[in-house]
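<backbone_tokenisation>
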Amino acid sequence: MGRYLIDTNVVSDFFTASLPESGIVFLSNIIDDLPIISIITQIELLCWNIDDDTLSKIKEFIDDCVIVDISPKVVAECVHLRRKKKIKLPDAIIAATAIANNLTLITRNTKDFEAITGLMLLNPFEL
């Protein structure tokens, strides 16, 4: 199995069972193997306005994840992306994290990222 960086929107889709069956199976395998998220995704997940039970599940999910911090390599890639593309800072950090760590970004929002050279994308709605 490849190495994947899971975007925030996919975590949301997974927890709300909004993914198609093929996406749920695919993501379940990744989560059971080695779920990887960026520090931006961790922050976004913990900022959701949700009930205590759901927050507990999100915290359990985060505890099971490898969280990729913002390294100097990620910073350099992010700066490069922001100079070349009009992209929001959180998205640029997530894309830079995937590129710098040779990860495929799993996201529903492929249009936000598709013009980024060197970024591998996977949309779980298109499996």
The helical segments are 8-15, 21-33, 39-46, 52-64, 72-84, 89-100, 110-113. Residues 21-33 form the longest helix (13 residues). The chain has seven helices and five strands. The chain has one domain: 4-126.
